[in-house]
Structure formats: structure tokens, C-alpha cells
Specification:
The chain is mainly β and 190 residues long. The protein has one helix and 20 strands. The chain is globular, with a radius of gyration of 17 Å. 12% of the residues lie in helices and 33% in strands. The model has no long low-confidence stretch (mean pLDDT 93). 35% of the residues are buried. The chain has a single domain (2-188), classed as 3 Solenoid (UDP N-Acetylglucosamine Acyltransferase, domain 1), CATH 2.160.10.10. The strands form three sheets. An eight-stranded mixed sheet has the order 1-4-7-10-13-16-19-20, with no helix packed on it.
């Protein structure tokens, strides 16, 4: 029975990956290792370095989630450095200067990264104005916990950790623990 379950799980996972590949409207560079399905959208550039892993088949949200990358404009870009691991139910949406994720970054499940506000704050301009935008840079060897939201203009220094459930905006140095809503430096890491 266990063998049957394993075979079914892998066959179903393969079919889901194939379906999301068919539904994707954007091409990408690189060959990520797909545990979870990948859906790509937009007119911009999406790049995966060597050894990037997308989701895992035994993860809690594998059966009802996917990895979503949307480089919406022709100048938008999303880039993942080599050997980065991305958890299930991840999304990265770029309308502006881009999202740049360094090498060997660990990203938990249910993480969202945006380089734009999508709409201006003023009520008069919400439906037609130009939103604020800012590049997101996550340097190498950063660990991002589950259910984190990273907003436009954020830079996270190398070897840092972002605590689960944080909403991150701003610039953070290397080797620190970041956490909270809004996120702040909690302490330095040795």
C-alpha cells in the first residue's frame, strides 16, 4: 500500500507541474528543480541560478499551492541565485526595478515579495496613478521564515534571518535576526 501511495503522489505531482507549465505565459532562464508547480507570468525577465529548488512534494501545502513569479512589465525582473531553496506557496511580483535573491537563500512557505505598492495611497489616484516602486535585494545565505511578506525597497544583508510572520520593509545589515510587524532588528547573529 505504501508503494502505491508513493507512486500516486509522484504521478500526481508530475501532472500538476505539467499543468502549471502549460498555464504559464512567460518563459524563464535556468532549470530549477521543481518539487512544486511553477506558474510564470509577465513580460519581464525571470532567472533561476543553478540548483534552485522550488517547493517540496511532502510539504504541508504542496497539494493546494504553487510557486508564482510575475515580472509584469518589460523592464521588470526576478532573479534567484544558485542553490536557493523556495518553500511551497511562494509568490514574487515585480512591476518595477526588480527582485534580486542571492545565493543559498532559504525561503519558507507562504512567503510573498513585492517591489511595488501596486496602487498610489491617495484615493484620487488609486485607480490610475503611478505606484511607488523599489528594488528588493536579499543577499546570500539569508533564511526567511514562513508567512513573511517583503515589501518594496527592502534590502536584507547577508547571513541574516527573518522570523516567521514578519512584514519587512527597509534596509537591514548583515548577520542580524529580523522580526515583527513592522520588522526591526532583534539582535545580531554571531
Amino acid at each position: 500500500m505504501i508503494l502505491f501511495v508513493k507512486i500516486f503522489r509522484h504521478a500526481y505531482a508530475f501532472m500538476r507541474r505539467l499543468l502549471y507549465s502549460f498555464l504559464s505565459e512567460a518563459s524563464y532562464e535556468g532549470k530549477p528543480i521543481k518539487g512544486a508547480p511553477l506558474l510564470t507570468q509577465g513580460k519581464g525577465r525571470i532567472h533561476f541560478g543553478s540548483g534552485v529548488r522550488l517547493g517540496w512534494i511532502t510539504g504541508k501545502s504542496f497539494w493546494n499551492s504553487y510557486i508564482f513569479c510575475d515580472a509584469r512589465t518589460s523592464s521588470s525582473q526576478i532573479s534567484f541565485g544558485k542553490e536557493t531553496w523556495i518553500g511551497n506557496d511562494f509568490s514574487a511580483i515585480s512591476e518595477g526595478p526588480g527582485i534580486f535573491i542571492g545565493e543559498r537563500v532559504l525561503i519558507g512557505s507562504h512567503v510573498d515579495i513585492y517591489d511595488t505598492d501596486f496602487h498610489p495611497l491617495s484615493p484620487e489616484n488609486r485607480l490610475g496613478g503611478e505606484p511607488k516602486k523599489g528594488a528588493v535585494t536579499i543577499q546570500e545565505n539569508v533564511w526567511i521564515g514562513n508567512r513573511v511578506t517583503i515589501l518594496k525597497g527592502t534590502t536584507i544583508g547577508a547571513h541574516s534571518v527573518v522570523a516567521a510572520g514578519s512584514i519587512v520593509s527597509g534596509t537591514f545589515p548583515e548577520r542580524v535576526l529580523i522580526g515583527g510587524v513592522p520588522a526591526r532588528v532583534i539582535r545580531s547573529l554571531e
